[in-house]
Design brief:
Chain lengths: 375, 405
């Protein structure tokens, strides 16, 4: 048993952190948040492409680095900590993973190569309505290779080239498709979101050209597997966010004085930070276990991923809201950055389906398997 | 990152599994005794058995009665022994808390005399820290140690809440040796022989009816100077070694009630709906599993760090803080699910031998012993996060000038 990242992986992480500290200030995050015409930080994205991050875990035959998930995990933690307003998760964890898992040779050749080369931004279009999730049969429909229907909120759709779309096929079977977004039969309308640093769009399809990804009728199964993998990477982003929010709160309360002493010396505040730290460490430890399950393709992945996801959702909400609380009135202003984490925590927690969905998965997996100990 | 056993570890696991199958007892319905005090003889036999087979104190050097293996082997052992009903962590106070201090502070010859007997539970040890006037504020203790002309020490005063003192051969005791300096600077730590007549042990009845902890009185009790642990007036640093090891030991062994809850959920129902299908129950199950798995995984991270040469820090507080509260909440929720039947505290009639009835009564102790929840949070805030201390009224004062409650 060795429950740690390797020296190389840790080096990658600290390099990534350093790079993002220099290149991804909170001002940059705000520039996307406050400008309705900017859909991502294009310059930062370009620099990430120069560092060849999008192709980190893409096989070498497609121009990637062929590294594993563990490298993606450490990168994700750095990205989460910096609040980077870039379409990395949509392109790499979601579209990229779906292509790796279910794409034909030709689809992989074409699109994975483009992702690795930084020529393709992706997104995933699944949610149609309140209560909709990857677990319900979508109403969007494909007949004779033409997609019609709509998706209510698609993160990164405004800047993406290619969408992974869920729809029913002519036999009403849940299926997946690849949709080039730049066609007249696709209407993209920007929508306001809780976290405007991660912009999204509503999509309308009126007979858009699509090609199937994976076998017809296998859509839900593929998406569930993609989401399990993405959940691990999202958990690392969330933990990165927790760490940043905790640091922010502690830094402020060390400087802020009340009743003649630093606010950080009041026990109510210290215990708040202790609780945030505990939640963050638990989420990180569960993310480590999930990273191992992901990297080694272990059968525990659905349980481990859901566990990491639930802990990360809870921890980031706690850390982001209590960081804000520790800032007093300042925390409630637009000027201060507390709400950046508060908003991002909400975005990351609902993006792959909220906590109840994942808790349900934890319970189902636990009750389905008998561990050796109980057998 | 690799979570699987190495070939060597897998071989060890297989050996352990085979040995346990032949030597350890499986739980039997209606027979479980959870009262610590009543399990003493059983525990002594179990420790002697595993020492004879070479499985005592797996990560201690062989010359001290250990197996010369690593903390990872200890984890493997715990995972395997969990299926059985043996009191495998019974002497954790001696082996987990006192042992490392003996190893750290005593000369080689004393270590070789004391540790192998501790490892096999031939000698039982207790930890004499808390006093009526000093628990959380441990450095406020008053039991005095005075050095006589011969160099030996005379101990007078009182300890309280000493777990297992009635069965102990030795204790690690923290005493005041100078009242004219600040409270942290005038302490000294010793090993005391508990079998002498000038040490009196009086059991205290716990709220769960058990009688595992005690008051201990010293009336000119004697300690030879060779039993001193660390420097004269260097007792606080020595005590920190014990407390740090205590948190590690607790993190590895404190029960969180999750396995029992999962078993209960698989079996029982609420108003005709199986618990396993009940959304309220599933919500809790998932929430607690995340904590349970997280504590375990953090412990593995800690062990990996130690194996790489790191020193375990205050992170051990996380496990204790989570597991104690969680066990109490699990007990409460499970009893609520049982309805009025839960009030029946009769092992033979109650679900799972009355595990949850017992747990609701013993879990308050877990949140106090080894430092309260509040103190754990202080430790995390001050030692891990390095936040400023609370202003202290007694700061800089000589011990003798500090007002008492
Ligand atoms: C089952 C059990 C077994 C034990 N075994 C042993 C043993 O073997 N050896 C031994 O030496 N001791 C033992 N103890 C004692 C234990 O360590 C103490 O009970 C514990 O440290 C608390 O001290 P106290 O009881 O004096 O409570 P107090 O210190 O009086 O605390 C009362 C309350 O005040 C809170 N409080 C105190 N200071 C602070 C602060 N700075 N900030 C916030 N809150 C604070 C506490 O959290 C608690 O809620 C045992 C206790 C129990 C319950």
């Amino acid at each position: 048993m060795n429950f740690d990242f390797s020296e190389d992986q840790k080096l990658l992480q600290s390099e990534a952190q350093k790079f993002l500290q220099q290149q991804c200030s909170n001002d940059l995050v705000r520039s996307v948040m406050e400008d309705g015409e900017r859909f991502y930080a294009a310059d930062l994205w370009q620099k990430m492409i120069e560092l060849e991050w999008p192709g980190l875990a893409i096989p070498e035959q497609y121009g990637g680095h062929g590294l594993g998930y563990l490298e993606l995990c450490v990168l994700a933690q750095a990205l989460g900590g910096s609040l980077a307003p870039v379409p990395f998760s949509s392109t790499v964890y979601l579209l990229g993973e779906a292509l790796k898992m279910a794409g034909s040779k030709q689809q992989q050749q074409e699109h994975l190569s483009d992702i690795a080369a930084g020529k393709l931004i992706g997104c995933v279009a699944v949610t149609e309505r309140l209560g909709g999730s990857i677990h319900n049969l979508p109403d969007s429909r494909v007949i004779n290779g033409k997609l019609s229907g709509q998706k209510a909120i698609v993160t990164d759709a405004m800047c993406a080239d290619l969408a992974l779309v869920s729809a029913r096929n002519a036999n009403n079977a849940y299926s997946l498709y690849l949709l080039p977004l730049d066609q007249p039969t696709v209407t993209r309308t920007p929508v306001n979101t809780l976290d405007p640093s991660r912009p999204a769009a509503r999509l309308q399809f009126d007979g858009a050209e699509v090609e199937p990804l994976g076998a017809g009728g296998k859509g839900q199964q593929i998406l569930e597997e993609v989401y399990d993998r993405a959940a691990v990477l999202f958990a690392f982003e969330q933990v990165g966010g927790c760490q940043a929010a905790l640091q922010m709160g502690m830094a402020y309360s060390r400087e802020r004085f009340a009743f003649g002493r630093p606010v950080a010396s009041f026990q109510a505040i210290k215990h708040k930070f202790a609780d945030m730290y505990v939640a963050q460490e638990i989420a990180l430890a569960n993310a480590y276990y999930a990273a191992w399950a992901l990297a080694s393709d272990a059968p525990e992945l659905p349980l481990a991923a859901a566990t990491a996801r639930v802990s990360a959702i809870d921890a980031y909400f706690l850390c982001s809201k209590e960081n804000l609380q520790a800032h007093g009135g300042m925390g409630y202003t637009w000027e201060f950055d507390c709400h950046l984490h508060y908003r991002r925590a909400q975005h990351l927690s609902v993006h792959l389906g909220g906590a109840p969905t994942w808790k349900n998965q934890v319970a189902t997996e636990l009750l389905a398997t008998k561990t050796a100990k109980e057998a | 990152m690799d979570f699987n056993d190495t070939p060597e570890q897998a071989k060890f696991r297989a050996e352990v599994r085979a040995w346990l199958a032949d030597n350890a007892r499986l739980p039997q319905a209606g027979r479980l005794v959870r009262d610590m005090h009543l399990r003493f003889d059983e525990a002594k036999q179990w420790y002697q058995k595993k020492a004879a087979a070479g499985y005592a104190c797996l990560d201690w050097p062989k010359k001290y009665g250990g197996a010369g293996l690593t903390p990872v082997h200890k984890v493997i052992w715990s995972e395997e022994v969990e299926k059985y009903t043996e009191p495998d962590d019974y002497f954790v106070i001696g082996i987990g808390n006192c042992g490392p201090a003996v190893m750290h502070f005593m000369p080689e010859q004393r270590r070789a005399e004391l540790l192998p007997r501790m490892a096999s539970a031939q000698d039982v040890w207790c930890q004499l820290f808390s006093e009526p006037g000093a628990g959380s504020d441990l450095a406020g203790l008053r039991t005095s140690a005075r050095q006589s002309a011969s160099g030996d020490w005379l101990i007078n005063g009182q300890k309280i809440w000493t777990s297992g003192a009635q069965n102990s051969d030795y204790g690690v005791v923290l005493c005041r040796t100078d009242t004219s300096v600040s409270k942290y600077k005038g302490l000294t730590m010793f090993v005391i022989d508990m079998r002498q007549a000038s040490v009196t042990v009086k059991p205290i009845k716990q709220m769960d009816r058990g009688q595992h902890f005690n008051e201990v009185f010293f009336n000119d009790a004697h300690i030879p100077d060779e039993n001193r642990l660390g420097e004269i007036n260097g007792g606080w640093e020595a005590a920190l070694v014990v407390l740090m090891n205590e948190r590690m030991a607790i993190t590895a062994s404190v029960p969180d009630g999750f396995a029992e809850f999962l078993k209960f959920v698989r079996r029982a129902e609420l108003a005709g709906t199986p618990l396993r299908e009940h959304p309220l129950v599933r919500d809790k199950l998932a929430q607690w599993y995340c904590l349970h798995a997280g504590v375990k995984a953090s412990y593995y991270r800690l062990i990996t760090a130690v194996a790489q040469g790191g020193v375990p820090g205050a992170e051990g507080a996380i496990g204790k803080l989570i597991a104690g509260r969680m066990n109490q909440e699990i007990a409460d929720f499970s009893l609520q699910l049982m309805g009025e039947f839960a009030d029946l505290h009769e092992p033979a009639a109650a679900t799972d031998d009355g595990y949850f009835q017992d747990a609701i009564l013993y879990t308050p102790g877990i949140r106090l012993a080894g430092g309260t929840d509040e103190i754990m949070r202080n430790i995390i805030a001050e030692q891990v996060l390095r936040l400023p201390q609370e202003p202290r009224v007694d700061k800089g004062m000589a011990f003798e000038d500090i007002p008492g409650g």
